Amino acid sequence: MSDAEYEVRNVLEARARLGEGPVWDEMTQTLFWVDIYNHRVHQFFPERESSRSFDVGEVVGSLAVIDPQTLLLALRHQLARLDLATGEVERLITVEEGKPRNRLNDGKCDSRGRFWIGSMSREEGEAALYRYDPDGSLHVMETGLTISNGLGWSPDGKTFYLTDSPEKTIYAYDFDAA
Fold first, then answer.
1. pLDDT averaged over consecutive 10-residue blocks of the chain (178 residues)?
2. How many CA atoms lie within 13 A of 11 on its CB side?
3. Which of the listed residues 76, 94, 112 is the one where a domain comes to its end?
4. Do 105 and 90 fall into the same domain?
5. 1: which strand partners?
6. Which residues pair with 109 in a beta bridge?
7. How much is the pLDDT for 5?
8. Looking at the domain assignment, is residue 22 inside a domain?
């Protein structure tokens, strides 16, 4: 950080139980985030300092922006679309159906629009990392995780990072977006 001074102020009383996964949408100039245990997706409009939220009916771990009217959600065991105009949730694909103690957790989109989503488990080594492609296909990318968290890429896009929280480990993978 530089020596510049910044003003920090509260712009929204969100009252989230477990607010996570902020995603800034350049197209709409709004901020999205999830309230995992209150089953809500929030959208904040900084220009007018107002917000709205959507009850998605179950635990929601993370989200990605598809277009100005649609979000991709990581629900407990499913990926789903949220229509921002209607609030309707359309379930797309089931993930880890045979692992009732797991749920989907942190997720991020790469530069090609693929959604990378990790699961979390109460049992050591029972979670995984998945990649959901725009064509609707789901790929297992890594196994043996416990709580997949902190997904991200290096500024040059050549390294993918993944945290396994209880293991206190950050993994760095060579990454080729092609």
1. 80 88 96 97 95 97 97 98 98 94 96 96 96 97 96 96 94 91
2. 12
3. 94
4. no
5. none
6. 115
7. 87
8. yes
Contact (CB, 8 A) for 71 and 82: yes
Residues 6 or more apart in contact with residue 92 via CB below 8 angstroms: 78, 79, 80, 81, 136
The total number of structural domains in the chain stands at 2
32 Rama class: left (phi>0) / alpha (psi -120 to 50) / beta: beta
What is the arrangement of strands in the sheet containing 50-55, beginning at the earlier edge strand? 19-25, 30-35, 40-45, 50-55
Report the CATH number that the domain containing residue 34 is assigned in CATH.
Answer: 2.40.10.480
Residues 46 and 105 in one domain: no
Does 4 fall in a domain?
no
What is the residue range of 174's domain?
99-178
CB–CB of 117/153 below 8 Å?
A: no
Measured CA to CA in angstroms, residue 15 lies from 30, 55, 136, 151 at distances of: 18, 14, 34, 25
